[in-house]
Each structure stands twice: as C-alpha cells, then as structure tokens.
RNA sequence: GUGGCCGUAGCUCAGUUGGUUAGAGCGCCAGGUUGUGGCCCUGGAGGUCGGGGGUUCAAGUCCCCUCGGUCACCCCA
C-alpha cells in the first residue's frame, strides 16, 4: 500500500476508463449546445450561505454533508454540493438577459459515506434555464435529459414526474398533510414516528412499509394544487406527450432539495434510483438576492450514468478504445534518434502518432506499437534512413501484416490512405 | 452518522489447526529470434502480507485500535 492514496470517497480515473468520461461529456455538450444552452464554468466553492439559502437549512445536503471550512481570510466556505445554487448565484451576480440557459459538467462534493454510485467527489452534468416560468421550458429541460439517455443507448430508465405546488398551495398542503400524519403518527415507521413534523413531505417517499401504508390514505398533492399549478403541470405533461416522451406520474416523488416548486422529475431504474433528476425552483433566484424570477433545471450524475451504461452494456471502454486509437507508432532502430523528427512530422501532418523511448530493442518497440493500438508501425533502420525510406507495417485491419517501403516525404500521405481504409 | 463483509505482487486470487527463504495465473522486463508485434518456450524483476500495538518460542493466520475498500441504512447524483 502506498503512502498516499486518493482521499476517501474519491477516485482517479485513468485511460482507457477516462475515455468514457470524455465521450459522455462530449455528447452531452453537443446536445446542450444543440438545445441552445451555453457553457457556464462556476467556482467549485462558494460562500457556504449560498447553499444554505438555496438547498434549505433542513436538507441533509446542508446539515450533514457539506464540506465546509473557514479559509485563511476567515470566510465561511463550502465546496459545492450541487450545481444549481452556483449557477443561480452567478446569474444574480451578472444579470444576463433572460432566459439564461446554461449547461455544466462539474465535480460536486458531499461529506458522506461512499457506497455504490456514491462518492465524496462526484460529477454532474446539468442545465439550468433561468428567467422563464413557461412550462415548455420544463419540457425542454426534460427532453434534453431524455435525449442524452437515448443518445447513449440507455433504454431501461424510466421518467417519473410530479408537481409539488407553489407558494400559494404548497404550504396549505403541507399543513393538511401534517395534520393527517399527526393523527396517524403511531402507524409510521420507527424512523418517522417522532420526526414526521420536520419535513412531512419526506414521509411520502419513505421506503418502509409502515409509511407506505399510511401514505395511501394521505391527502394527495395533486388534489391540493392551486389552479395555476394545475394548469402548469397539465401543460408540462401535455408537452411531454407531444414529444412522445414516456413518463409516469408519481404522486410521491419528493426530491431532497427544499427549493423545488411545481415540476419535479427523476430518471431511474429498479436497480439504480436517481440517475438524474431536477425540477422547477421558482423563488430560488430571489432567495439568493435576485429578482422574482423562476428557473428549471436538472443534474445527472456521471458516475451513475456510467453505471447505467454498464448495466446495459453500452459505452464500454473497449468500444471507445477502438475508435480513439493511434494512426501510427514510430519504431526507430536507426541508432540516430530519428523517431524524434519523424514523429514530429507526422503529428504536424495531422496524424495521431506515438513512439517508444529509451532506445529499446526493435522487438520491444513493436510490442509497444502493438499494445498502443496503432494502425501501423513506421519502422526506420539505419539503411532505410540513409536511403530516405520508411518501412510501413500494417498492424491492424483487413491488410494487417502488409509491409511496404515508402519515401519519407510521402509517408504522411500514404499513412492517410491506409488509415482511411477498413 | 449507524451496521455487515473485506484488505496478501501492477491486476485477480491461493496460503491447512499459528511453524523454515509467502505462492499461482495474468500483466511487465529480457532472451529464444543480428532490425519485425500478437502465438509459443525459457528466465527475471516485483511483497513494509493496508498501518500501529498486543498475545506467543513463533503471527499473513489470533486479539485490539486505526486507515482504506465494499454493501446496506439515512440521504442523494
């Protein structure tokens, strides 16, 4: 065991595994841009108050999972536990023209015990649309996430949607639910029997049987929605229908961050809950000192998306390695170090080229060439060098083992031909 | 934060009731092959047995602590 290791709950992602990351982020970036979102790069840490105001003082993310510390200037700082708060803060600070549509791919930090699909540093892809309350913005955001999963080839994820109401109807419902829970407190699970009052909505998505029984008789959120919320929700569902995005309405979908209003949604499977999700957060901009503007967005965990890909056998590292490998590998047995110039020339010509170091034996260099995945080896010996020739040996593809000598000036062009053939 | 299981070579793992210099496969390096990869053969390097303490004549093996991994709960991506 080495002296230093990556901190608990963090990981090093090396090639070729890292190819899955760049592929995933690349596809998401392309999609987000196609949907009219611009990249936002925001700090990995903020004034801790930013997260307390947004996620809610009572949320677990804030109360027990924040990486919070005092910096050398005495500031109360927290490592970003989720993406929305930072983007909203940036929006308030710079007030760009609404609607402000931003995407990001960034690390998030939460101080918690690692387990399957959960880390102290994890990474999320996300988008936020700020400055519009249009239900079609909700649909757009959901459809972007749906498009991402479809693009990856994921088919086992199901979309659940719900509406939590807004500031006019949510508080009333909360009270109504609390009254109901109070009268059924003894029937709740051990965990919630005495803690139902902290956040009554939480009981709705408690997994334990006792709470599940109680909730079937509980007042329904959908019956408590005010007229505006009802209309908004109907419009969202209608929009999803028009785009043929499959969903199930889930009256019990309550997400963990306190800022959600109206629409909430989540993608998941039986094996893997919470592969991505989000919702609308009218009021969050104001909570961070901005105008009364609404917003909607989602966050999706890269690690969890990759787990889902594993489960469905898509986006595997071995598939990606084939498409991302080298064009050529320079093998130099000339004793003149000509690999330096040759590699440089080929790279300048736009080819992906690598070479061996330490003047190893030809056998060792060819072995390295083979292992690198390069399509061909460019072999130069002392005689070739003197004659201005390079030997091309095809390592992979339909014409593997083929070998030919070409003049050095024509090497890049010839390699280009070979690389394009099957 | 609570609980279960697990830490032996780069990786996957053997290692008997505690008993000599801790092993295998794969990978890596070299040679067989005087410029030619994969396959094969031969050899080699590589280990504070996660760390610390304890019990014992003797600890990879037993006990305690600790660090890490993993899984579940809580919660979440």
The top-level CATH class of the largest domain is Alpha Beta
The order of strands across the largest sheet is 1-5-6-11-10-9-7-8
Beta strand %: 15-25%
Query: Could you say which structural class the secondary elements and strand pairing correspond to?
Result: alpha+beta
CATH architecture of the largest domain: 2-Layer Sandwich
Radius of gyration, CA atoms, in whole angstroms = 28 Å
What do these coordinates show?
It is a single chain. With about 425 residues, the chain is an alpha+beta fold. It has 2 domains: about 15-170 and about 225-315, 2-Layer Sandwich (BirA Bifunctional Protein, domain 2), CATH 3.30.930; about 325-420, 3-Layer(aba) Sandwich (Rossmann fold). It is about 40% helix and about 20% strand. It contains 16 helices and 16 strands. The protein has helices at about 15-35, 50-55, 60-65, 85-95, 135-150, 170-185, 210-215, 220-225, 225-240, 285, 300-310, 315-325, 340-350, 360-370, 380-385, 410-420, and strands at about 40, 45, 70, 75-80, 100-110, 120-130, 160-165, 250, 260-270, 275-280, 295-300, 330-335, 355, 375-380, 390-395, 405. The protein has an 8-stranded mixed sheet, with helices on both faces. Strand 3 (about 70) and strand 4 (about 75-80) form a beta hairpin. Helix 1 runs antiparallel to helix 5 (about 135-150) and helix 5 (about 135-150) runs parallel beside helix 9 (about 225-240). The radius of gyration is 28 Å and the shape is elongated. The two termini are about 45 Å apart. The structure holds one RNA strand of 77 nucleotides.
